[in-house]
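Box 3.1. Reading complex inputs
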Amino acid sequence: MEQDFVVGVDIGGQTTKIGIVDRKGNVVSEPHVIRSDKHTDEYLFFDDLIQAIDKLIAETNTGGKIKGVGIGAPNGNYYDGTIEHAPNLTWGGRKTIKVAEILSEKTGFPVTLTNDANAAAVGEMTYGAAIGMKNFIMITLGTGVGSGIVINGQVVYGHDGFAGELGHTTAVRYNGRQCNCGRVGCLEAYASAIGLARTAKEFMESHVDRDEYNQRSPLRDINGPITSKDVYMAAIQGDKLSQKVFDYTGMKLGESLADFVAFSAPQAIILFGGLAKAGDLIKKPTEQSMNENMLSIWKDKVAVIFSKLPESDAAILGASALAW
Amino acid sequence: MEQDFVVGVDIGGQTTKIGIVDRKGNVVSEPHVIRSDKHTDEYLFFDDLIQAIDKLIAETNTGGKIKGVGIGAPNGNYYDGTIEHAPNLTWGGRKTIKVAEILSEKTGFPVTLTNDANAAAVGEMTYGAAIGMKNFIMITLGTGVGSGIVINGQVVYGHDGFAGELGHTTAVRYNGRQCNCGRVGCLEAYASAIGLARTAKEFMESHVDRDEYNQRSPLRDINGPITSKDVYMAAIQGDKLSQKVFDYTGMKLGESLADFVAFSAPQAIILFGGLAKAGDLIKKPTEQSMNENMLSIWKDKVAVIFSKLPESDAAILGASALAW
C-alpha cells in the first residue's frame, strides 16, 4: 500500500495542533487540538498526543498509509530530534527530551522534528507567501516570538540545530522586561501576544483615570487579565490607548527587524501567528520602525508581508513536509 | 601560458592593500599599500590602484599569468560587483560605484568583488582558523566593524548581496553614539578601533584629574587624539583605565555577539583586525559578556577565537580566492 499521508504536529506553549496531510498539502483530517500545558511530565503529554494521532488516523481511514510524523516544537532540534530547555513548555524546561526517538518507538513511524517557526517557514516556502523566495525571515507572533530564517532557499539550523531564536535577541538592553527564558529585554517580552497585553497593562497603569487621549479605554472595564485579543477588539473600535499599544509593539518589533535585515538581507519578512491577525494595526508601525532603523541601502526595499497559509494549518503543513 | 596567479585587493577606509597570490595561497609580491582616503573621486583612486597592480605584476614577473582580480571592499556587492553608499570611503558615500565593471574595462582582467569582511571569512575558511567549519561568524575589528557570516559552508550574501553588516546592528538603542553611517548606537561606534579610542576619551573626561583607581593614566600625557594603539600600550603596561576601556569594549561586543548567536548558532566567532591584536585584553571580556547574555542552550558552547591568518594577508587571500 502506498504511503500517501503524513502527520503534522505543531506543539505550542498552550496547545498542540495535529493534522493528517496528503501529498498535495491538503489537511484531510478535521481540526484537532490538545492541551500542551496540562502536564509537567512529557510522557503524559506524549500519551495524549499518540491517542490523538491514532484517533485522526482512524477517522480519516489512513491506517497503513502514513509515511511519517513531522513535528514543529519550541526549541526543537532538527539534527537530534530533541526538545531542549524549552522555557514555554510546562514539561520542557531545563532538560533535553528525545521526542523523535521516543515517539518513533511508541508509534512505529519515523519522526522528524524542528523548531515550530522553522516548520512554519518550510510550509510558507512550499505553499504560501514565500513560494519562489530564497531569502526571507518568518516571524511568528504567538504566545512567544519565534523565527524561521531561510537563506539561499535553506532553513538555517546552525552548528547545533538551534539557529533562529530571534525572539530571544535583545530588544531592550537595560531595564528590559523579564522574559520566560530567564533573561531580560528579549524581543519576545515585547512583541508576543503576552508582551502586547503587558504593554496594555503598563499603558493603563501610567494613565490612572482617563488616558492622555481624554477617552476612557474600554480595556478598563474588563475583569481579570487583559488579553491581546481584548486589545485588538478595543483598537479596531477606535480606542486610542489600544492603538498606541499596537504602535509601541510594532515599533519594538521593527527596531529588531532592522537588525535582522543587517544579518541576512532578506527579500521579505513574513509575519505569522496570533498578532499578525491584527493586520495593519501591527504591520504599519512595524514597517515604519524597521525602515527608520535600517541602513540606507535597505530602506523601503524589504517587504513586510503576512503569511498566506491559514494560521491553523501553516505549522502543521510545514511540520508535515519534513516527514516526506 | 597558464594563469597561475590572482590579484587580491583589500580596500579599507584608510588604506588599500594589494597582493599577487599563487594557487597555494602564498602572497608572492612584496607588501604594497596605497591610501584609500586621498581622493573624493573614485576614478582618481582607481588610477592609483591600477598603477599599483601594474607595478606588482611587473615586480613579480607575472605578466600574462594573471587569472583575475578579487576585491574586498566596504559595502561591496558580490552579485553586482559594486560598492554602494559606503560611509567609510571618502569617494564612496551616497552613490553606487560599478567597481568590477570599471576596473575590468581598465585592466582587461575579470574582477570579482565582495564585502571586505566576507573576503576575510573566505580566506579564513580556506587557509585559517575556520578550516573544516561550516558555521561561523567572522568579526573584523578595524576602523569599522565588519562581519562575514558563513552558514552551511557558504558566505551569506542575502537577497541583494549586502548581508552581514553586523557592525551596523544596534548595540545601544537609545542615546547611543553617532555612527559614520548616519544612525546612532551601532556596534561599530563601540567596538571599532575608533569606538575604543572614543571610550577612552569618555572615560578620561569622566575622571577629571585622577581616575577612580587612584592612578594617573598615561593616556593623559598624550598630545593630540588618543588612538586604540595608545590604549593598548597603556593597558599592557598596567594602566587600569585603559584596561577598563577594553573591558567595556568587550562587554558591548559580547552583548551583540550573543544576539548574533541566536540568529545563526555558529560553531565559533572569529575575531580579526586591529583590535583583535590586543589578545586576551579584548577576548576575555568579550567571551564573558557573550556567555552572560546568551540563552542557556548556547552558554560556553560557542568558541571565541582569533584569526589564524596574518592580518595583512587575510583579506587579500580571501579576496584573491574569489578570482580563481
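In summary: Chain B has nine helices and 13 strands.
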